[in-house]
Amino acid sequence: MNNFSYLNPVKIAFGKGSISKLPELLPERKKIMMLYGAGSIKNNGVYDKVMAGLSSCNFIEFAGIEPNPLYETCMKAVEAAKKNGTEFILAVGGGSVLDAAKFIAAAIEFAGTDPWDILASDAPVRSALPLGTILTLPATGSEMNMTAVISRASTCEKLPFSNPLVYPVFSILDPETTYSLSVRQSVNGVVDALAHVTEQYITSGSGTPLQDRLCESIISTLIEEAPKILSDPKDYEARANIMWCATNALNGWCSCGCVQDWATHMIGHELTAFYGLDHAQSLAVVMPELWRINMHSKESKLAQFARRVFNVKEKSDSRAARAAIAKTEDFFHSLGMKTKLSDYGINGEEAAGKVYERFMGRGDVALGEDGDINAAKAREILLKC
Q1: Entry pTM
Q2: N vs C: which end of the chain shows fewer Cβ within 10 Å?
Q3: What is the distance between the alpha carbons of residues 219 and 197, in angstroms, rounded to a whole number?
Q4: C-alpha torsion sign, points 55, 61, 67, 69
Q5: Rounded to 5 degrees, what angle do the CA atoms 321, 373, 303 make?
Q6: SS3 339
Q7: In this structure, what DSSP letter does residue 69 have?
Q8: Measured distance CA(123)–CA(322) in Å, rounded
Q9: Rounded distance, CA 377 to CA 327, Å?
Q10: How far apart are CA 229 and CA 187, in angstroms?
Q11: CA distance readout (Å), 117 to 71, 107, 114, 126
């Protein structure tokens, strides 16, 4: 175990009625910006609960954060926050709102010329406003990590950044807020969480048995619980288990001491940027073919995955590994998640060409745990998708 993972303390309020804890979690006498999306929180009762918690606070609202939050919208929020003298950001929504809050918190304090450089050029973030979150869509794990992903409409780009200064001070997780999610949103959340785990687990790495077991337990729980929320959207126990899985999938515990992949995500981001695919949709498309093409380095973990999670009895590692991929695709299909570009009306050759040119335009790339996925290999993967 050689790699360092940053585990930051965060106050977690979990369970029914946990939004009522908001007043005691908020900082006193701070000017607050409440950030949210298109307004679904006004239809499911969350908005009213948050308003009750903010009743004695000095705050402004900023609505309209998109799925795959846009840099352009975030910069409007930055302008509003500066004008108001905002000192604390409260993000209410899913991962997109939480990611936007992290970028806004950093951009407000950014000392450089263009905050986009935080994403495009890895410009240093030396200070950021503190932020808290109220999660309504479990998927990204943003409520308990220091990472965000932001898109830019003007250039069709989608880029990540990480910094411990944007780790939430607190996060409120009430599974009942997820009852009103659509089937598409619920499925996306499950697939996203599963993909986060596999990026830390299905690698060429070894020697981390505890982390392997953590990853396997999260995936197994997702597989067991996901069908329950499709048959009964108000199954509290299933909703709670999935929410906690999504948080643990990307809070740093699974990756302690592990090599990590993330090539599926980086290629998937480009599909979202170019074609507007949901983040989880892009992951479900890329992941199986990336595994097949990188079978030489992932076979051992895939075989372990097959045996421990899917109860595959095959003695041959090669056959077991391929069974793991097929069973993962079967699970996605059982949820109604599609796994081919053609399922979304996307021409594979065109997509492969666009992503190749994008990566080459950045001076080529070296993705994956072994740095062996360059622009040409990403093109090869997408041609198989």
Answers
A1: 0.95
A2: N
A3: 7
A4: negative
A5: 10
A6: coil
A7: -
A8: 41
A9: 24
A10: 9
A11: 11, 10, 6, 13
Beta-carbon contacts of residue 113 (< 8 Å; ≥ 6 apart):
none
Q: Are 279 and 293 in contact (CB under 8 A)?
A: no
Residue linked to tokens 């000095």 = 58
Structure tokens at 79: 């302008």
Q: What is the pLDDT along the chain (385 residues), one digit of tens a residue?
A: 344 455 567 899 999 999 999 999 999 999 999 999 998 999 999 999 999 999 999 999 999 999 999 999 999 999 999 999 999 999 999 999 999 999 999 999 999 999 999 999 999 999 999 999 999 999 999 999 999 999 999 999 999 999 999 999 999 999 999 999 999 999 999 999 999 999 999 999 889 999 999 999 999 999 999 999 999 999 999 999 999 999 999 999 999 999 999 999 999 999 999 999 999 999 999 999 999 999 999 999 999 999 999 999 999 999 999 999 999 999 999 999 999 999 999 999 999 999 999 999 999 999 999 999 999 999 999 999 9
Tokens of residue 8, six digits: 């930051």
Positive or negative: CA dihedral 337, 310, 381, 245: positive
Contact predicate 87/30, CB 8 Å: yes
Angle at 232 between CA 98 and CA 66, to 5 degrees: 25
- In Å, how far from its chain's centre is CA 13? 20
